[in-house]
Design a protein that fits this description.
211 residues, alpha+beta, six-stranded mixed β-sheet, two-stranded antiparallel ribbon
């Protein structure tokens, strides 16, 4: 099993975060019910549609194919944006320690081969400007492996989840498959207000300035 993770973490003021993971050789096990993925805003709002349109235009300008909408990554992104707003933290990892990759599975997406961009901005244009101005986030948006995307927005928090498996023609999944993963070694990572003990395996943290 091979993993590569790039994580851009948080600092002071308004920040952006990007996470990219390549997951190979997954072994799928028994299906289980969706957990911890409740959201009523998985469908695109006007602002989220704006980001989606800007993203596809930007990809095509740079020689990459347009992405389709993933109903399951849309739910994962919506949940993430709402959770960031409700709990007041700034990380790709939820306070429970759940990673974006496990969140994607538990929101119904059939793979952990995903990338995630986070931003804090009051507008769609502002979020896209932040992501384009950061090399890691920009590379994530223009990555040729992605075929689908989900976008979430809540109270200034943006989440963009990109995936390599096309689930665009399916309804939002009601059951998901779980993947056996080794227990990572805990590594201290900076949080919005205090150090976090959330484990991140083989990760690189970057502090990225924002608007």
């Amino acid at each position: 099993m091979a993993r590569r993770t790039i994580l851009a973490g948080s600092g002071a003021a308004l920040l952006v975060g990007a996470m990219l993971m390549v997951f190979a050789g997954a072994r799928w096990e028994t299906a289980r019910a969706l957990t911890n993925c409740e959201t009523s805003t998985a469908a695109f709002s006007a602002a989220e549609q704006n980001v989606f349109d800007q993203l596809n235009a930007y990809r095509q300008q740079n020689g990459q194919p347009a992405l389709k909408v993933s109903p399951n990554l849309s739910r994962a992104a919506a949940f993430m944006a709402e959770d960031l707003l409700a709990k007041g933290y700034w990380s790709h990892y939820e306070p429970s320690g759940r990673s974006p990759f496990q969140r994607a599975l538990e929101c119904g997406y059939p793979s952990q081969n995903i990338g995630e961009n986070l931003a804090i901005s009051g507008s769609a244009a502002g979020a896209m400007t932040l992501w384009k101005s950061s090399p890691t986030h920009n590379a994530n948006m223009l990555n040729s492996r992605w075929v689908v995307v989900g976008i979430g927005y809540a109270g200034g928090y943006w989440a963009m989840d990109l995936g390599a498996v096309d689930d665009s023609g399916t309804a939002a999944t009601t059951t998901v498959t779980a993947t056996a993963s080794p227990t990572p070694t805990p590594t201290p990572t900076p949080g919005p207000g205090q150090p976090s003990q959330i484990p991140i395996k083989r990760a690189t943290l970057q502090m990225i300035a924002a608007e």
